[in-house]
Structures are given as C-alpha cells and as structure tokens.
Design goal:
This protein is an alpha/beta fold. It has twelve helices and twelve strands. It folds into two domains: 161 residues, Rossmann fold; 185 residues, Rossmann fold, CATH 3.40.50.
Length: 358
Amino acid sequence: MRDHPENNLVLICPGKPEPDSRLFRLLDALDIHPGGFSMHIYREEELVPIRNARILFAIEVDGAGINLEWIRMLRKIRLKRKFFEGSAGAVIMDSPSEFFTKAVGREAVLSINMSGCAFPGRPLVEATGSLMNFKVLSDLNGTSLWETYISETKGLISRLCSFRLPEKKKAPKILVLHASIRETSNTLTLWNMVKDKLPENFEILEIPLLNGTINDCIGCPFTTCMHFSKKGKCYYGGVVVEQVHPALEECDALVMLCPNYNDALSANLQATVNRLTSIYRRRQFFDKLLFGIIVSGYSGSDILAEQLISALNMNKTFTLPPWFAMMETANDPGSILKTPGIEERADLFTRNMIRQLT
C-alpha cells in the first residue's frame, strides 16, 4: 500500500498511450501540476492500494469501447473495499468512436468509489472520436474542439487538486427523496434502518414524490428556463419547485431512495432529477454530498447507482463521498429485514454517512 501526501497527483493510465495517440498528445499538452505526477501507473501489476492521493484516471478505449489493461485493473480494484481509501479521483475518457465514453466512465467511477475514493462534482471529461461532444462549449468559448478538450481537462485537474469534501456540520441537514409506498417498500424499510441509527442532531426532511402531478422537464429554450430560474421557479411549478428546490438549497446531503423498476429510476424520481435544471441554472451543488439507497428485486442495483452518478454527480455537480451507495436485493415486501447481514451493512453505511457529514 502507498500512502501519499494529499497534494500529490497520481496518474493511472491503463496501457501506456502511444506517442501518436490523442491521449498522449493531451497529457503532453497539459501544464498539470506544479510538482507534476508523483507516480505513473500503466500496468495492472504496478497497481497497489493507494491511500490519501489525488488520482487522475486517463483511460483510452478502442473502437469497441475496450481497454484490456483497464479491465485487469478493474478486477483488482473491485475485489478490495479500501483500495483507494481517503483518495479523490477524476476521470478522462478518450475513444476513437462516438460511443462508450460515458458508459465506461460512469462504470469506472462507481467501481472506484466502491473502493473508498471520493469524486468532486463533474469528475469526468470525455472525448468522443469526432470531439463533437465539445461543440457547444467550443462555440461558446470561440475555441477549437481540441483546445476545448485541453481546457476542460485542465479544469478537471484543477478541481481534483483543490478538492475537499464539503465542510462538516454539527447538525447536518439531510434531504431524502423517494417515490415509494411506505407499507410495501423494501427501500423505505432499509432507509428506516439507516435513519434509526443516525444521531439525533441530524435534521432529516423526507419528501415523497408519489402524486401524479410531477411533470417531466419539457426542455424549455434556454432563455425560458433562465427566466423562470431567476425567479426561483420552473415552467411546471408544483412540489418540485415548492418543496424540493428550497430543500436542496438548505441541505448538506441528498439521499435518493431508489427501488429498481426495470433497471431504471422510477418515473417520478427521474422527472424530479430532470427538473433540477431550473435551480442548477442559478447555483451548482459542489457543496452537497450525494448518497443512494438502492434495492433490486432481482439484480441491477449497480445500473441505478451509475444513473445517479451520471445524472447528479457528473451532470448536476453533487459531490460523491466514498462508498456513496448501499445496494441490496429483496423482493417480497419486508424481505429486506431477512437478508443475511443486513443489519451490519446498514450500520456500515450509516457510520460512513456520519463520518462524511460530522
């Protein structure tokens, strides 16, 4: 195990890029850090548990979205819960095709997070083969696609090097969002197990999103969205604007309670996430932690965890604390209580929440 001073930057680049590759030219073009990288890791056999470091993962996949050296590293990372304990990470994804960068990137973030690594908001810079995913920023900034790629990566590394978990509070405020029926929901039952273990100084606000009045975002033009946003409103109004937005302004952490419906967030939760664009126009969420409790009837909890990462950490800038999600399997109502080891895992998740917030 290697323990690093927290201002040191470690590069993990699975399979050293060739000098003519775009990733090599990107890394060569960056003025990354006053002291440079303290360590370069290119091969699975070089990878050992790393503590208390700032880690930049630069992953170049082929046209099929595959990097065999990364897969070998991923296997080692997933088998050890504390592989990156105390560290913070960020990810660059580069592909010669138009696909797989987001999929591989959010899978990487989840696996690394499950090994004890935190991530700042917006921890991913992805470059598709054409670089057209930078087109909007390129037009706004008057820069080329390549220059925008470099600029975005510099910003990512700057966020990584300066990253600190949000300030801890004596009485942290927790916002809990769910769209479940209390009498039958294993997800709510599991949350209650966690909640019962939290200290009395935690201020907890639960907002149920059950009624049929939660409309999804219709994608208003930017000027329309900004018009409503400046007034603290949204075109549709309702519980999202009247309750969720003000609670988000006040909270220190957001807890998403997510039963797995067809390997996707439930409709009301997804609609609520989509409707955060209005408040996001006014303020970002780097100062707020994201936690998830996910229960699947069969399998696929990791798919929902990746959706939370993609939507709320990568897109809406919530900070991802280490071990952000508790993922369980239970089918019949109440069966979560009979899951072997559930009390111990709930206790572990609760203690992590307390450690991150107080």
